[in-house]
Amino acid sequence: MGERKSDVLQGTLDLMVLKTLYAMGPLHGFGIARRIEQLSEGVLDLNEGTVYTSLLRLQQQGWIASKWGASENNRKARFYSITRKGEKQLALETDNWERFAGVIERVLRLERQG
Amino acid sequence: MQFLRVWAARAIGLLTGRRQDLDFDSEIQTHLRLLTERYLSQGMSRTDADAAARRQFGNATLLKERQRAQRGFLSPAEWWGDIRFGTRMIMKRPGSNAAVVLVLMLGIGMNAAVFSFVNALLLRPPAGVASMGSLLEIWWHNRATGGVQGYFPFTYPDYAYFADHSRSLEGLLAFDGDGHPTIWNRSGAGQVVQGQLVSGSYFPLLGVNAVLGRTLSPADDQLATPRPVVVISHSFWQRQLDADPGIVGRTLVLNGTAFSVIGVAPSGFTGLLVATEPDFWAPLATQEQFTHDKGRVADRDGYWLIVAGRMKPGTDSVKAQAEMHVLARQLELEHPGSNKNLDPIVYPATLVPGPYRGYVAAFTGLLLAVFALVLLIACTNAASLSLARATGRTREMAIRSALGAGRARLIRQMLVESLLLSSAAGVASVALARWMTQLLLQLKPASLPIALDVPLDWRVLLFALLVSCATGVTFGLVPALRSAAVDAAPVLKEETRSAGLHKSRLRNLLLIGEIATCVVLLAGAALCVRSLMHANSIDPGFDTQHIAVATLDPGSLGYSPEKVSAFYRRLMDHVLALPGVTAASYADYLPLGTSEEVTSVAKQITSDPNKGRSDVFRVDPGYFSTMGITLRGRDFTQKESDSPEPGVVIVNEVLARQLWPGQDPIGKRIALGGAKATSEIIGVVKSGKYRTLGEEPVAVVYRGTLPPARTLVIRTSGDARSILQEVQRQVQVVDPMMAPTGSQTIEEYMALPLFPARTTGILLGASGILAVVLTAIGLFGVIAYVVSQRTHELGVRMALGARQVDVLKLVMSQGLKVTLIGLSIGLVAAFWAARLLAPLLYGISSNDPSTLIGVAVGVTAVAMLACYLPAKRAMRVDPAEALRYE
Questions:
Q1: Of chain A residues 17-36, which have a CB less than 8 A from chain B?
Q2: Distance CA B623, CA B628 (A)
Q3: Which one of A5, A13, A52 would you mutate to disrupt binding with B, by most B Cβ within 10 Å of its Cβ?
Q4: Cα-Cα-Cα-Cα dihedral sign, residues B696, B697, B701, B702
Q5: HEC profile for B842-883?
Q6: Where would I find the H helices in B643-802?
Q7: I need a surface site. Which of A37, B60, B301, B648 has the fewest CB within 10 A?
Q8: Which CA distances in Å does B129 have to B209, B265, B401, B814?
Q9: Closest C-alpha among B639, B626, B467, B561 to residue B115
């Protein structure tokens, strides 16, 4: 456990998964996990199983859809894709996140006074 | 709406759980394999790669568990946890929870009991009949007559016409709705058995096959060549014939004619009519042996057959009804006299004949509604008790929610607890319902020759289950929503235990509703009980004590008129010689029974159609003294009574007043309908009740000329019950072949006319008492709880100088305010609801002011008592103790 990794902030995994699907098009669970790992550059400590919980949650909300297909090396896999509703939700969540992140950033930039 | 979507997805998930489990499994496996392959390609050993993949993926079992919970509503393990925790919480307060269970058991049990009657009468299909769905019942309806009197069963000729001409029906069957008490010559001694006349098509169309021998066929039921054959019921075969396996082909002598037994009906089959249990079924064509009515099958005005038909496949009741209309029109054209205005109505066949179904449904529906209100009170009670409890558990809920339990999770926990309580009540209520139905069946007059089977079948159990669940959710939901809405932070920060303003307002609303409902029920109960008291005190015009009654019909045996009167003369001699008998006589039947004879009356013979009408009773000498009816003038002589045209009659005061107002009718002459000469009035009797206890005065004329079927009335000096056995024995001594078709005391006889008042009086009385008790418990519980919550506050008040009486006022006023609001709402509602009862009441208006005032005073008194007891405790609060308690 040499290097320090950050936990995934609660609620942000859904946003990450949604955005990944939006950007990359249909993907299976393994593909999504790889993509997030790649982008996090090894900083995030992601239990890859939780990706699936997130996928189910998003699917129940109707923001993503899934269907069975063949993976690149011809394995049977379930492919997830973002829906029209999901895209709207993504825009909304992105806005929310940016506003929130903006606040955090401004707070963190506060200089010590006196 | 988003949550609806998620819930729908979860519901689907619940249903398709197994497949989704498998899918998800393969998804995880693929993922793990891909991870392993990646590590392998990085040069790890197989074992290391496997372990690394699993580490990176996380706990797959836990994931599956979560996935399952997220997909459906819960995992089984969580349910189990909730149930165990709920049971523990319930066991922690055994007293108050036992009270909730008891209260709910009473509510659910009474509903289940009433529902088992609804089920027995209206829902249960006849036992043993194949595919009831395609059976239709057909009744005549006279377009010119309203109400239930407008409906008639069929005549034989009309039945035969429909059976011959209908194309939409596979076939028609008919049976005589009236049972026939028949004398069975059982090796030399007469015994009364019940027979039913049915068409040859009856058994084949119902799809009922004999367990032994064969059933009746159309060939047995030819008018020209009637075959003297019977099918006997399974229970008759078992009870009376020792289940003799060789019974088929044996002979039963019924009403003096030999009938051969051709088969035994299957066990449980009792026919298509509720509350009848025939011992045997005979072909319609043999009706003369049972009805002693020669021309009945040819009579176009004799309505006696209940008709049903089975629809052909592909036909529906609308098509059948249309065809029946056409057939009826043809009959009306052919027979304009008898069939004028007659129109057939088809009903789906059930145990209660179509035209009466609405009335049965309305009455049982009223009772169900009444007991649903009782259950509502019970629910409100349970709700306010658990609301109080929930308030006490605010801290627990706050901690649980702080530890991460979601709102839904908290609601579920509370609901599981209330459902546990209500299911316990539901189980107990089934036992209560069983006991109650037995009790209610005893209300049935013994003289009604009916056998009502009230089974506790799956419908009743399902009803109890649904009502229990609905009850659990109803009384659990409000407290559950309240306690789940708890805002954790302030509750955990502060140490207050006080009930918020919001909660007490809700509790007060519940109490107000409870009291209002109680007032409505109590008003109904008071009305019905007072009506029963009225009915009991109505003077029927004859003595209702010290009289024994027996019905006899030697005509069944085909005796000649001479032999019949010889039998009656000898029997009278034997009866009068019995010790304790002071008088005895015969009548054709007693008043307030199910029979009636009506004739027209006038001062002279006239063809004026607007003559007066009068009920007719045919009596022997001594009838009035036996029955305790005051007679002015003289009684009949035996000779006058026996003569076919006696020329003398006795009238009641009502008839005397109608025809000769202000004059003495004795010695006047009266013309009875159909008589060729007028008759002399030799006596006047005091008027009584003749058809129903609540009737308006009825004109009555008494005459002689009794038919072979008679009622023997005997006046005794002691208890009439002790003589019944002896009378039965004397009948057999006089003629071994005879047996009374019924024998009872006059008190038992009076159970029939009092039946409606007794049933409603007892049932609604019970509902009223339950309502008051439940409401008192609810009020007491809530006030006691409030006092216990306010102990600290009351202590402070007293420490600051409040006197005991101030505390008493404070606590009482809270309870009384609620009571008075509930009372006023309840009185208004009762005023309207009581109208529903109006047709069932005797001698009391449905808005009787003294009853309503009495109810108001009674409810207030009970409420004051329920508030006073806890208030007294509050008064005794020791300020020092109360303050230290904090």
A1: 28-30, 33
A2: 8
A3: A52
A4: positive
A5: CCCCCCCHHHHHHHHHHHHHHHHHHHHHHHHHHHCCCHHHHH
A6: 653-659, 721-734, 746-789, 791-799
A7: B301
A8: 10, 11, 58, 61
A9: B467
B727 within 8 A of B548, measured Cβ to Cβ? yes
Residue pair B535/B843 in contact (Cβ under 8 Å)? The answer is yes
Q: Which residue has the tokens 């946890």?
A: B81
Q: Does the predicted interface ipTM exceed a cut of 0.85?
A: no
Q: Which residue of B has its CA nearest to A72?
A: B34
Chain A from 59 to 78: CB within 8 A of any B CB: 59-62, 71, 75-78
Cβ atoms of B699 and B613 within 8 Å: the answer is yes
* Closest residue in B to A60 (Cα–Cα): B6
- How far apart CA B389 and CA B385 sit, in angstroms, is 6
Tell me: the pLDDT tens digits for B316-375?
A: 888 889 999 999 999 888 888 778 788 888 888 888 888 888 888 888 888 898 889 888
Question: At which residue do the structure tokens 């109608």 appear?
Answer: B658
Pair B79, B69: CB distance under 8 Å: no
Q: Do B27 and A71 touch (CB under 8 A)?
A: no
Mean pLDDT for all residues in chain B: 85
Q: Where are the domains of chain A?
A: 6-108
pLDDT digits (tens, 9 = 90+) for A48-67: 888 888 888 888 888 999 88
Under an 8 A CB cutoff, do A75 and B10 touch?
no
- Any B CB within 8 A of A45 CB: no
Q: What is the 3-state secondary structure (H, E, C) of A5-47?
A: CEECCCCHHHHHHHHHHHHHCCEEHHHHHHHHHHHHCCCEECC
Residue B801 has a pLDDT of 83
Give yes or no for residue B882 having a pLDDT over 60.
Answer: yes
3-class SS at B251?
strand
**Count of positions (residues) in chain A:** 114
Sequence-distant (≥ 6) Cβ neighbours of residue B329 within 8 angstroms: none
CATH number of A6-108: 1.10.10.10
